[in-house]
Design goal:
The protein is an all-alpha fold. The protein has 6 helices and no strands. It is globular.
Length: 118
């Protein structure tokens, strides 16, 4: 969702987005995704209101994308901060996902359509 929003805003590379999506599909569970959605929904809403929030999350997304590219063979994109984010973030998402139910992440896109239809 965060990377999707960054792509929508023209601030994130589409190839990195697709590689990240494939990586998530292969390595993370439904429980990880429930946990991610629980905290990322309000993050994306804040990104839509604040350039500062967008810049902050873009920095983190870029580091994570570099680490994922490194894991998939692009040795020039080694990023220790991105590795740290994944090492901490993935287990945290899993834990949160065990505590929450399914999140309505599609609401972000219904909200966006409602705003642009006015």
């Amino acid at each position: 969702m965060i990377c999707t929003e960054l792509v929508r805003q023209g601030l994130f590379d589409r190839d990195d987005y697709l590689l990240g999506a494939r990586h998530v599909e292969k390595h993370l569970s439904e429980q990880h995704m429930r946990g991610y959605h629980a905290w990322a929904l309000p993050v994306v809403r804040s990104m839509r209101r604040s350039r500062r929030a967008t810049a902050f999350w873009r920095t983190l997304a870029r580091a994570r994308a570099d680490h994922i590219a490194f894991l998939h063979g692009d040795t020039a994109r080694r990023n220790r901060f991105g590795a740290f984010l994944c090492a901490i973030g993935h287990p945290v998402c899993y834990l949160i996902g065990g505590l929450v139910g399914e999140q309505d992440w599609r609401s972000l896109y219904r909200e966006r359509l409602a705003v642009t239809d006015r």
